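Weekly sync, protein design subgroup
Attendees: M.S., D.O., the rotation student, P.L. (late)

Item 1: inverse folding check
M.S. brought a backbone from last month's batch and wanted to see whether the design step gives back something sensible before we order anything. D.O. pointed out we never logged the input encoding, so this time it goes straight into the notes. Structure tokens as presented (279 positions):
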């Protein structure tokens, strides 16, 4: 059994290093997942039997002007990994949904991505469920960790520099601490049997807006910056995000007895880790 983690310099990839000390970890310099031959050769020569794909084009706004690259990395890359026949874990996103419902999105709900990034991730889901031999797709949302760039780190940085910050309150979802997602993968991966193809939602429990999230980040960090709520139209971004993208996690909890922490508790753990690192 040999596990490969691709995109290992990203948030989830770095987090998985804590759980899988014996796995192979590669990022684009060692293994570009868009290169079909390179992927096939690597998997063969290292006798890889399982892959957790953390590689992705995650710059949601940039993707609007860079559709070709986003498609290559988010659709063709995972397909190349699937073609090797190894058991594949693929990470997808709440941005496959249009966000017009006001109840949590279930796995089988109709997809309606509003952005290039969301479209590529949605197309990847469909393709893998058709073409992969064995695949577990986990849809997550609002991922953060002590690594890389994310909302928690940005808010803490800006909060230390400014007296007030405006943050949108009309987009609602659930944050996900990468360590909680990594632990769920660690528990579920051995239970995925050869030939199975599954898709599940996974985020932390609870619901908040970006404004609530930012306010809690400041409070838990002891930062006095005042957070003010604004509407999405007051903070223009190139890509459109769903207004409501809370994920329903009933299916993953029933299938694998995964215990999912409440978002505020996990946020506190991440902030403690950041403070230990002096960040
Ligand atoms: N971040 C979120 O809020 C969020 C929310 C929902 C779902 N997700 C999904 O969760 C997964 C992990 O996200 P993350 O936040 O950990 O991502 P991340 O921090 O952006 O990491 C992605 C990694 O993949 C690398 N990469 C890009 N193109 C590659 C290629 N062709 N071959 C190999 N590696 C490549 C990136 O390198 P460069 O940095 O050099 O490009 C980066 O190190 C992704 O599938 C993402 O779509 C993320």
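Designed sequence read out in the meeting:
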């Amino acid at each position: 059994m040999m596990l490969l983690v691709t995109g290992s310099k990203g948030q989830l990839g770095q987090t998985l290093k804590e759980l899988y000390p014996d796995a192979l970890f590669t990022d684009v310099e060692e293994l570009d997942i868009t290169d079909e031959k390179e992927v096939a050769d690597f998997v063969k020569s290292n006798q890889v039997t399982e892959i957790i794909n953390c590689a992705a084009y995650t710059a949601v706004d940039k993707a609007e002007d860079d559709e070709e690259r986003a498609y290559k990395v988010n659709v063709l890359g995972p397909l190349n990994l699937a073609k090797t026949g190894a058991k594949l874990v693929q990470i997808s996103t709440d941005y496959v949904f249009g966000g017009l419902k006001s109840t949590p999105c279930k796995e089988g709900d109709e997809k309606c991505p509003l952005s290039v990034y969301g479209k590529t991730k949605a197309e990847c889901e469909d393709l893998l469920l058709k073409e992969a031999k064995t695949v577990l797709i986990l849809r997550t949302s609002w991922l953060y960790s002590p690594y890389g760039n994310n909302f928690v780190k940005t808010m803490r940085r800006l909060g230390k520099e400014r007296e007030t910050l405006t943050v949108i309150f009309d987009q609602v979802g659930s944050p996900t601490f990468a360590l909680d997602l990594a632990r769920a993968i660690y528990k579920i991966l051995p239970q995925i049997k050869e030939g199975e193809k599954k898709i599940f939602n996974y985020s932390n429990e609870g619901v908040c807006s970006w404004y609530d999230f930012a306010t809690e980040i400041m409070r838990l960090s002891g930062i006095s910056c005042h957070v003010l709520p604004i509407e999405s139209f007051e903070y223009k971004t190139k890509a459109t995000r769903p207004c409501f993208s809370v994920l329903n996690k009933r299916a993953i909890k029933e299938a694998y007895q995964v215990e999912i922490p409440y978002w505020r508790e996990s946020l506190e753990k991440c902030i403690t880790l950041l403070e230990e690192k002096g960040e």
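Discussion: The chain has a mean pLDDT of 97. The longest strand covers residues 87-93.
Action: P.L. to compare against the previous round before Friday.
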